[in-house]
Amino acid sequence: MSTLKVLVTGSAGQLGQDLVLLLQNQGYEVLGCDRQEMDITNLEQCVEVIGGFGPDAVIHCAAHTAVDAAETDIDAAYLINATGSRNVAVAAEKAGAKLVYISTDYVFDGNGTRPYHEYDNTDPKSIYGKSKRAGEILVQSLSSKFFIVRTSWVYGKYGNNFVKTMLKLGQEKPLLQVVDDQKGSPTYTVDLANFLLELIQTEKYGVYHASNSEACTWYEFTQAIFAEAEDILGLKFTARLEPCGTEQFPRPAPRPRYSVMEHLSIRTNGFQDIRPWREGLRDFLFEMKE
Ligand SMILES: NC(=O)c1ccc[n+]([C@@H]2O[C@H](COP(=O)([O-])OP(=O)(O)OC[C@H]3O[C@@H](n4cnc5c(N)ncnc54)[C@H](OP(=O)(O)O)[C@@H]3O)[C@@H](O)[C@H]2O)c1
After folding, report:
1. Is 3's pLDDT higher than 90?
2. I need a surface site. Which of 89, 108, 216, 233 has the fewest CB within 10 A?
3. What is the 3-class SS of 153-219, one letter each residue?
4. What does pTM read for this prediction?
């Protein structure tokens, strides 16, 4: 049993909830904070709450994650993802805590043809991506003990996500068109949370790419969701699945066409790679069954 003290921001979010549960189950002393307990846009409150708890590590999951809304609500995206992350970084540093900042594949341009590694140039195209990248830079310059952990296509038991949407629509609609020209790596919150726990035990600071390994398109992901859910949950899907192009679903924020991330830092720091996405998906469906 570890005695590490860990504070989690965004603890009511999709990742935050699984992370808090896992930390508690593993005997950590945990303080989960959502907006009510600690609004990250309030510097004084961050210093007070983080300083008061005195954590060994802060895992910063809170973010403005509404990718399309961010294109018009630019100030809100930067206030939370950049300034808010600055506040968390200042407070964590004052408390002498390690800081984990959860970031995103959207920091890349999405035009690549081979997996992006941790030290490839960033070039975000959306406001969400730009504001998350601004958060990375602030964390990097203000924390002396930081981990920047970029992940992608996150789903889990809590909150709305692609897997849950497809499970629902697949049973309701006669036809489901899903984009087949955007490629990335789905990530199960529990697998990511387990990796974060391993990371905070160490002093192996730096930038990490942490998605489930291997890649697929959204269409291929949906095929797998249906096949595995039929097998594990015994569901029957009425929808005929059809591949389509990004242009069929115009969105305010540009989506990366290719956002596969190589796990160079996981390898070079001697961590075990995160398992393939399909294994994570199966375990998620087993979790849903329970
Ligand atoms: N979901 C993905 O596919 C994905 C992909 C790559 C990276 N990420 C990153 O992974 C992290 C976790 O994502 P997630 O899917 O768990 O997101 P989420 O479910 O949207 O959770 C984010 C949480 O942050 C909270 N929050 C927002 N503004 C806040 C503020 N001012 N003060 C305190 N809390 C605030 C939200 O609370 P409210 O509900 O009250 O707003 C929400 O509970 C984020 O950093 C995200 O950028 C996510």
Report:
1. no
2. 233
3. CEECCCCCCHHHHHHHHHHHCCEEEEECCCEECCEEHHHHHHHHHHHHCCCCCEEEECCCECCEEHH
4. 0.97
